[in-house]
Amino acid sequence: MKIQMKRSLLIVAGVAIGLSLLLVRSGHTAAAETKFEISFPASLNGEPITGRMFVMISKNNRVEPRLQAGSYQASVPFYGVDVNALKPGENAVIDSSTLGYQVDSLSQLPAGEYYVQALLNVYTQVHRKDGHKIWVHWDQWEGQQWNRSPGNLVSEVQRVRLDPSAGFNIKLSLMKKLPPIEAPPDTEWVKRVKIQSKMLSEFWGRPVYLGATLLLPKGFDQNPNQKYPAIYIQGHFGLNAPFGFTTQQAPPETDAQRKTRLARSAREPGPEFSKAWMSDDFPRMVAVTFQHPTPYYDDSYAVNSANNGPYGDALTQELIPYLEEKFRLVAKPEARVLTGGSTGGWESLALQVLHPKFFNGVWSLYPDPVDFRSYQMSNVYEDDNAFEVPNGDWSKMVRPLSRNADGQVTLTMREMSRLEAVLGSNNRSGQQIAAWDAAYGPVGKDGYPRPIWDRLTGKIDKEVALYMRDNGYDLRYNLEKNWAKIGNDLVGKIHVYCGDMDNYYLNLAVYQLEDFLKVADNPKAEAVFEYGRPMKPHGWQPFTNAELVRMMAARINKTASGLVVMK
């Protein structure tokens, strides 16, 4: 019996050795432990924190690794994981199973010397008016910049050797909080305001603020009885002056610099615009940019939203009336005009379309998708997947997101979506797709924006797409459906400009918008469309900002009864 047992043991051992050799030969060895353990001391923060923990890994230390992470195309590898009520001294773990961007897993990092840093993006729990309790990053007037946001916790930069094949366990301690944002000081020409919105505060269950930066015309203080029309400029969060206005001297453009700029756009440098704005013969108007970040993006898209709240109403019924009273703006529709580029291009057009009687014209530049049949490169009503293009029975092509002006693809939709998945779960990435989901889409059962597509598979949710369309966010569909009602209030007000090689394929939706407006009848739209040809990229506009202001002034002088833009 003992002999039999020995024989059995020998057989088992032989099988085990054989399996081990087989696994080694096939490459399926047990992975070495690769992980980071991150904590924070009670001296820095005494209470548990819910948020998103990151580790950033860089080959250089020219700037902190946190500042090298998060961009679509130039990001260093980084990894993110949710933490729930993480206590002081307790470890958050980022290991080979943690989702990463640029390099999918820690186990795939090439062995070498690296600079590493950890950051905790701190969330706040909010009790919304719709009954949902959710955790979000509450903007600290930085414009949803997770790697710069005041109050977020960061570690010191540490130089380490990482070799996934040998394994590693790196401990990082979060030792400081990022400081508050300092707004630029007001000047004779530039003023800033910030007000609490009653509407938005009620929606979010906590104080919500709207801001504005105003560029005043020449003679504003010397003419206290004069009232002025307003240019409302839409776009991403920022505290600098409209149109790049500055009184600082700058080196003049070289011939080569001017040639390069004009090959892309006629838009002039800020100092050049400033000379025009301050000249004696320039139209006297007030230029305004808005600040309205949300928990999901640096900008609300200026519309009422199930996820963001009533931003469209707050801007038109709270902020604009406040500015009109405080800065002597003409409180009439004919004295309000709109412009903006990219995100701001969509916003400015949406404000005009959704509030047709409130504004007197829009000059929309290279807008975000204005027809959701071209949602970038996807038709979200018909396509099944945002990442892939069917190509016959067996093949699927990768769907691009961006290109250079020569047509070379620079980023895919799959890559962009993965970046957002790493940056935050539940649409808390603070990036583009999350922004659209929050602005246009329905609220999910968990209280967070329901995604238009799965960030890891690309599967499109057609119910979300139809919700977006039927609630007015597909601007072409909205105009076509409601033209009989709103057309008379939009005649001659719509001007759209886009390069025909827009880097994000935004020209495709603009073509579709034009297709409708050029055949719209009863009334005729009298809309203006102009395309940058040949091969003009994102950011193209055919006129300087000074010329744009003069065009707007001409529109006001032509259409506003008894109102003339003073010079």
Could you walk me through the main structural features you see in this protein, from its secondary elements to its overall organization?
This protein is an alpha+beta fold and 567 residues long. It folds into three domains: 34-177, Immunoglobulin-like (Sandwich), CATH 2.60.40; 190-371 and 474-559, Alpha/Beta hydrolase fold, catalytic domain (Rossmann fold, 3-Layer(aba) Sandwich); 375-470, no CATH class. It is built from twelve helices and 25 strands. The strands form six sheets. Strands 1, 2, 3, 4, 5, 6, 9, 10 and 11 form a nine-stranded mixed β-sheet that branches. An eight-stranded mixed β-sheet has the order 12-13-15-14-18-19-24-25, sandwiched between helices. Strand 20 (388-391) and strand 21 (395-398) form a beta hairpin. Helix 10 packs parallel to helix 11 (507-517). The radius of gyration is 27 Å and the shape is globular. Residues 1-30 have low confidence and may be disordered.
Write the layout of secondary structure elements.
Layout (H helix, E strand, L loop, with lengths): L1 H25 L7 E6 L9 E10 L19 E9 L5 E4 L4 E2 L10 E11 L1 E4 L5 E4 L16 E3 L2 E5 L5 E10 L12 E7 L1 H7 L4 E7 L14 E5 L20 H10 L5 H8 L8 E6 L12 E2 L3 E2 H16 L9 E6 L1 H12 L7 E4 L22 E4 L3 E4 L1 E4 L5 E4 H11 L8 H9 L21 H9 L4 H12 L7 E6 L7 H11 L10 E5 L12 H15 L8
Helix pairs in contact: 10-11
CATH topology of the largest domain: Rossmann fold
What is the structural class?
A: alpha+beta
Name of the CATH architecture of the largest domain: 3-Layer(aba) Sandwich
**Shape descriptor:** globular
In total, the number of strands is 25
Distance between the termini: 111 Å
Q: State mean pLDDT (0 to 100 scale).
A: 93
CATH superfamily of the largest domain: Alpha/Beta hydrolase fold, catalytic domain
The proportion of residues forming helix, as a percent range, comes to: 25-40%
Our estimate of the beta-strand percent is: 15-25%
What is the CA-based Rg, rounded?
A: 27 Å
